[in-house]
Amino acid sequence: MLNVALFGPPGAGKGTQSDFLVEKFNLGYVSTGDLLRRELAAESVLGRAARDIIAAGGLVSDEIIVQILEKTIAENPYASGFLFDGFPRTRIQAYILEGLMLKLNTTLDCLICPPTLARNAISPINTRTVSATGGRK
Description:
The protein is an alpha/beta fold. 51% of the residues lie in helices and 12% in strands. The protein is built from 6 helices and 4 strands, in the order E-H-E-H-H-H-E-H-E-H.
């Protein structure tokens, strides 16, 4: 199993690299924002818990996010691994992800940060659109 975490600033090319890596290595794609929106739309137990936190003006806890990650991994047994797009974002999330990987008897094999200069990141962001249902295009 190959598990990869891709991180970097907005516009760094994470999405572009994600598409390539997911296809080449048959990886499950894990974007916490996409997964959270899916759980909210499905009105699952985790989605309802997240909705309540968001409605109160809070940030969804790492605990809920990791539960969503674990559920997603369990729902994709035929993936050859997973690509975590933009997660972990903090040192605490990295420790939590490491614990999840150990629990699942696997490891995070590598972290990739696409090289970028600040001026190169501005152009793609200026042309990016956001749909009404959330997420970028």
